[in-house]
From TrEMBL:
Residues 253-305 form the PAC domain. One of its GO terms (molecular function) is protein histidine kinase activity. This is histidine kinase. One of its GO terms (biological process) is phosphorelay signal transduction system. CDD domains: HATPase, HisKA, PAS. Residues 318-522 form the Histidine kinase domain. It catalyses: ATP + protein L-histidine = ADP + protein N-phospho-L-histidine. InterPro entries: HATPase_C_sf, HATPase_dom, His_kinase_dom, HisK_dim/P_dom, HisK_dim/P_sf, PAC, PAS, PAS-assoc_C.
Length: 527
């Protein structure tokens, strides 16, 4: 294919050269020749037109090449037959030199044979000696000169072809390596999950990848050529110091900091910044890779909380079993004293009440440990919810609390332990009722999304101060005189076993809202 293209290019070049020489020949012949032969010009023009037409109609390049030789030697032979001047004979050898342009052994040999045949023809026909003084031995030198020219050109063609082949192989290899490197770098840049950016030394964005747009929120067309405010105000000093270090050629690898998104949200990131050098080893730009650590940090926090819950569960199980046995005996004996003695009736009443409270705490201890024995089955969430609402219906009426329920997905199934999900809802409704001693409203909304169920519970109670909101989910922390501090811990532990989530928000004077998510039941996935 490369040989085909090479011949085609050479054909085009020769066409231009021969047309130029043809017109030069006409001009010179007109002014120099005493009796110009018009037939010479016409025949040369016809031959060039034939070859030009073959090129225009895309004849095979090799055919056009040989047609060039035939037309050229026919034209020179015709001119020489009319005017057998020495200069015309010399043009027979020019054809051999011209054939070298193709770097083809066959072309050179073919051109040489045509030249020798024409010279022999004129020699045999005695035309060679009509107007020029020659000895017969000169024909040998003509042929010898022709053959030497051919040999030299063949050697040059061989050397040139070999050189071109080596150069072509190296060039193709270099192009392949360059293409592979470009594709690798482009793939690394485009499909990397980390944010990649290139900045000029004055802080303007040169290029960013898709992950940068997803993590930071800016589109490439919004920020290229501009400076973006992604560094939080309190960290600008540290960022400028790091920038100066990189400008001096230092590479900063995997340091943790915080950046600001387009929407103003602060995110935890791990950044690597490297200088980009030119050939003179001068820093011309900065290359940065940012990894979003938000999910990783949340996972670490969740795992720490899970470890705490697991430890609390193990402690709760051990303590509960140790306490419940003597507690049962104490409760029995005090019950007997309470029934038989009116003298200590007031004391035994208090004692039984406190024992019941201790028993309640022990029960919550056991609930804290119980999710390890969770039995997951398919349950209709509406059934679980209705059972819990029915349980608190009378108490809501007594405390003047109105429960407003809105269920957008009444026929939704979840994979759960029904008793434990009931316990979660019971604890939350109990907290809501206790937060509204003077009455109020509880809004309970249930919505379904792609793979889960969201339960939103909001009361209009007194609310929780912001300084306490972070502590109420810790084991044994409570703001209630009779609380155990384990209610929310039990809820979170149960939801963890169900692969759900829990979020609480509160405003003093407005109330508290809790958002739960529970995965839906999926055929063939949940068991």
């Amino acid at each position: 294919m490369e040989s085909h293209n090479l011949i085609k290019k050479r054909n085009f070049i020769l066409l231009l050269i021969f047309w130029l020489l043809y017109f030069v020949h006409i001009v010179l012949y007109h002014f120099i020749a005493a009796d110009p032969h018009m037939i010479v010009f016409i025949s040369g023009g016809i031959l060039l037109l034939v070859v030009t037409a073959m090129y225009y109609f895309h004849f095979y390049p090799a055919i056009i090449m040989y047609s060039f030789f035939i037309c050229y030697y026919a034209y020179i032979a015709y001119i020489t037959s009319i005017e057998p001047a020495v200069i015309n004979y010399l043009f027979l050898f020019l054809g051999i030199i011209v054939s070298f342009i193709y770097y083809s052994y066959i072309a050179i040999v073919t051109s040489t044979l045509m030249s020798i045949i024409i010279v022999l023809y004129f020699y045999v026909s005695n035309t060679l000696f009509t107007s020029v003084t020659f000895v017969k031995l000169d024909i040998v030198y003509f042929i010898l000169f022709t053959l030497i020219t051919m040999i030299i050109l063949l050697y040059c063609a061989h050397f040139s072809k070999k050189l071109i082949a080596i150069t072509t192989v190296k060039m193709n290899k270099t192009e392949d390596e360059l293409y592979s490197a470009q594709e690798y770098l482009q793939s690394f840049f485009t499909y990397n999950r980390d944010a990649i950016s290139v900045f000029s030394l004055d802080g303007k964005v040169i290029k960013v990848n898709d992950a940068f747009e997803q993590i930071y929120g800016w589109k490439a067309e919004e920020i290229v050529g501009k400076t973006i405010p992604f560094i939080p105000a309190g960290l600008k000093g540290d960022a400028e110091n790091r920038l100066e270090r990189v400008k001096k050629g230092e590479k900063l690898v995997a340091f943790e900091t915080q950046d600001k998104r387009k929407d103003g949200k602060i995110i935890d990131v791990e950044i690597t910044v490297s200088p980009i050098f030119n050939r003179d080893q001068q820093v011309v730009a900065l290359f940065g890779i940012s990894r979003d650590l938000t999910e990783e940090k949340e996972t670490e926090k969740f795992l720490r909380q899970t470890d705490k819950l697991s430890l609390a569960g193990e402690m709760a199980a051990g303590i509960a079993h140790e306490i419940r046995n003597p507690l049962t005996s104490l409760n029995g004996f005090i019950q007997l004293i309470h029934e038989d003695s009116s003298r200590y009736h007031s004391y035994t009443t208090i004692m039984l009440s406190e024992l019941n409270r201790i028993n309640s705490i022990v029960g919550e201890f056991l609930l804290l440990a119980k999710p390890h024995d969770t039995v997951m089955k398919k349950h209709a969430f509406s059934t679980i919810l209705n059972d819990v609402i029915l349980l608190y219906e009378s108490e809501c009426v007594l405390k003047n609390v109105l429960v407003k329920t809105q269920v957008e997905a009444p026929h939704t199934y979840i994979c759960c332990d029904a008793n434990q999900i009931k316990q979660v809802l019971i604890n939350l409704l109990k907290n809501a009722l206790e937060a509204m001693p003077s009455g109020g409203e509880i809004h309970l909304n249930v919505t379904q999304h792609t793979k889960g169920l969201t339960i939103f519970i909001k009361d209009t109670g007194v609310g929780i101060p912001s300084n306490l909101l972070t502590h109420i989910q810790k084991p044994f922390f409570t703001t209630k005189p009779s609380g155990t501090g384990l209610g929310l811990v039990v809820i979170k532990n149960i939801l963890y076993q169900h692969k759900g989530t829990f979020e609480i928000k509160s405003t003093v004077g407005e109330g508290t809202s809790v958002t739960l998510t529970i995965p839906l039941w999926e055929q063939g996935v949940n068991h």
